[in-house]
Design a protein that fits this description.
By secondary structure, the protein is an alpha+beta fold. Helices cover 23% and strands 30% of the residues. It starts with a strand and ends with a strand.
């Protein structure tokens, strides 16, 4: 498989559930984190939700300091509901896109599927855009959808998950691939140090009409 040097700003849209500052941004080292986590996790349920399974990340790949909580979080939370993501059957990864529109289309599809699976009926969810710099050599299968139809299958992730598991075992930094929901590039990152300078951007409201995300409204913050 080819390897490609990537140096770009990525776009990611996530539920806007928690405040932006997390415990990982309040410490500067693994030792500081271990002490703080041991003290706070005894009584802080939200902390356990936020940090997740920190043991899922090798110590040399853990990040601390400003902006790291939003990078680390997806790596410490394995996929829910059993199916897993396209390239991660049972471990956490960081999905992002080269362009905002691609991230939007990907998340609209997956959020709608989530609501449909739970038969939630019309509802709304607040989402926020996260911008993160990606600067590493990634494996790439971009431009190969016709050749790799099993990996790019719309709903069957068995082949793509096997690929993701193998790349993670080889300590790959990540994979560049074509979006299945849009027409541009996506990335799946397997190791946190590939990412840096994570910062919040815009906020949006996704409006689900019972079948699909029918409207996306940007929420303007009034100061």
């Amino acid at each position: 498989m080819d390897v490609k040097s990537i140096d770009t700003t990525t776009h990611r849209l996530i539920p806007s559930r928690f405040p932006p500052i997390g415990v990982l941004e309040r410490v500067a080292s693994q030792e500081d984190f271990d002490i703080l986590f041991e003290i706070e996790s005894l009584t802080n349920d939200r902390l356990r939700d936020e940090v997740g399974e920190i043991a899922m990340i090798a110590e040399e790949d853990r990040l601390f300091g400003d902006g790291t909580s939003l990078i680390m979080a997806p790596f410490t939370h394995p996929p829910a509901l059993g199916q897993g993501g396209r390239f991660n059957p049972d471990f956490g990864v960081f999905y992002c896109a080269a362009e905002f529109k691609t991230a939007l289309e990907e998340t609209k599809y997956h959020r709608a599927k989530f609501f449909l699976d739970f038969d939630s009926g019309p509802t709304k969810i607040d989402m926020r855009e996260v911008l993160t710099d990606l600067n590493k050599e990634l494996h790439t299968i971009a431009g190969q959808r016709n050749l790799l139809s099993d990996i790019y299958h719309s709903d069957d992730y068995s082949t793509s998950q096997a690929l993701g598991r193998n790349l993670k075992a080889e300590k790959s930094w990540g994979l560049e691939y074509d979006s299945v929901r849009a027409t541009r590039i996506c990335y799946v990152v397997f190791r946190p140090p590939a990412l840096s300078n994570c910062r919040q951007s815009r906020h949006f409201e996704y409006q689900f009409d019972g079948e699909k995300i029918a409207h996306v409204v940007e929420k303007i913050e009034i100061k």
